[in-house]
Amino acid sequence: MKNGNKLHVQTLFLIGFLVGEYLLGMLTNLLVSSPEGGADWQQWEFARTQLPVMAHVILGLLLLVGSIVVCIWAFRAEDRTWKIASGIGLGSILLAIVSGSEFISSQRDYYSLVMSLLLIAAITAYAWGIYETKQ
Q1: Residue range(s) defining the domain that contains residue 49
Q2: N or C: lower Cβ tally within 10 Å for the chain?
Q3: The whole model's pTM is what?
Q4: How does pLDDT run across 70-116, given as a tens digit for each residue?
Q5: Structural domains of the chain, count
């Protein structure tokens, strides 16, 4: 399989998993009510016991690994478009993870919004990469 095809396939999987991550985030938002006013460690202890939250966290970490793989493949392929798309995607996913961590600690809705916006940025970057490199 050529590098371009590998990148397309991996990126399509990433987009699918990003949509799944969004749905898990919405499910978590609907089903999980975190205790108010707890310390950071208490918020994390509570989050650890919630299946939707942990599924969201685990999928986020898997997305990080997948985005790193796409970024490595893009740089090996020496394709400028894929370098840009994968870099934006990786950066967006990494920042979304940081934002999610801050959300669990603080329970400030702002961080949830930032996660959503970064998800849109990642999907847009990957979709642009696929569109620009269609064969």
Answers
A1: 3-132
A2: C
A3: 0.90
A4: 999 999 999 999 999 999 999 999 999 999 999 988 888 899 999 99
A5: 1
